[in-house]
Amino acid sequence: MKSNRPENSHQAALLRLLRDGPRSRAELADRAADPAALAASATSALPTGGAYDHPGRMSRSKLNVELDRLVELGLAESDGFAESRGGRRSGRVRLSRNTRFAGIDIGATSVDVAVTDGELRVLGHVSEPCDIRLGPAHVLDRVLVLVGKLRDQNLFTQLHGAGIGVPGPVSFAAGVPVMPPIMPGWDRYPMRETVSQELGCPAMLDNDVNIMALGELHAGVARQVDDFLLVKIGTGIGCGIVVDGKIYRGVSGSAGDIGHIRVDAFGPVCACGNTGCLEAYFGGAALAEQAQTVARSGHSPYLAERLAVTGTLSAEDVAAAAAQGDAAAIKLIRDGGRHVGIVLAGLVSFFNPRLVIIAGGVARLGHLLLAEIRSVVYRRSLPLATGNLPIVLSELEDAAGVVGAARFISDHVYSA
Length: 416
Ligand SMILES: [Zn+2]
Hints:
Blueprint (H helix, E strand, L loop, with lengths): L8 H10 L4 E2 H9 L1 H6 L19 H13 L3 E6 L9 E5 L5 E6 L3 E7 L5 E8 L6 H17 L8 E6 L3 E2 L4 E2 L13 H9 L3 E5 H12 L8 E6 L3 E7 L2 E2 L30 H5 L1 H14 L3 H10 L4 H9 L3 H25 L3 E5 L7 H14 L2 H4 L4 E3 L5 H15 L3
Parallel strand pairs: 4-7, 7-10, 11-14, 14-15
Antiparallel strand pairs: 1-3, 2-3, 4-5, 5-6, 8-9, 11-12, 12-13
Helix pairs in contact: 1-4, 2-4, 7-15, 9-10, 9-12, 11-12, 12-13
Zinc ion binds next to helix 8.
């Protein structure tokens, strides 16, 4: 396995800076010499990634030595010359054009795989429906088929890393899912090791919510935001927590597992075995079940007709019904939004985020859902916390997971 890695923290920080695009040696030297000035001009030519992406104080000659070494290692390459700033023109450096990362986003009902370059631009993205309950061997097989499709498109010959997201709790240290409620057969499956061996590159595993939060941080609605929450409402419900531009995972990796916060002791039974969990009220599975009940009760002609035609109902059907003005569907969305809002109001009081992002398949219920969540959070949290708190929908939608997974593995590869 060929996996050149940076040899020290200076090289690693330079690589993370170059992930935002080619830079002249002069720009990189400025950044190394005067972090405060660069932070102040964050909105100008150089996007800033916060203290994390700062190369550390380095003399000009030390910086040039490290950059030359990165070129030797094949991690970076020369990229012509920058515009003159009055003196000699400064040579530009960029990440190696051959760098390729895979972002693998395994959902409850679908698999997405993308290949990116070193700057995390998506070069190809393929997806197919896939039931996670069929178990790890089957799903892994499909992942490898999708990776093969991208290879067949000549998008890469060698991957430099693969980031993987799964819809359940993950032991970050071991790289395995741990008793994931909606993933039967996956407990402790060595996902990280298996993917690493199959693809011949380093791999990292995290839960899909953290991955999506990284995607929004890198290229979505949270680009300039270091402290935010991403609430994913899909088949399950979870929350990505970003503190100081980094994912907060907690002691054992389960931070943000908000789907199993109880909203009503006498509520419905949840997949986890408890009663009244948020997820039991408003995960995709709960919503589909409620839609079927409504359809059978005769309160929604639209849903009844859909059910008769397809034999099943999903969150999309509820969205379509609501768009037609179906009162029962609108009530389902409002009730769900209220339950999410109640939990979120508690999180906002606790965490005081700068931004809250609502993402995931059920989030496509859109502005009706968003309006209900906003009204509950703004009513229930204190004004100091919500005074300037945007609650918005994801910008990246399906791409958030794969971009975030690529960012996740690039953080690992570009570390020392
Ligand atoms: Zn539960």
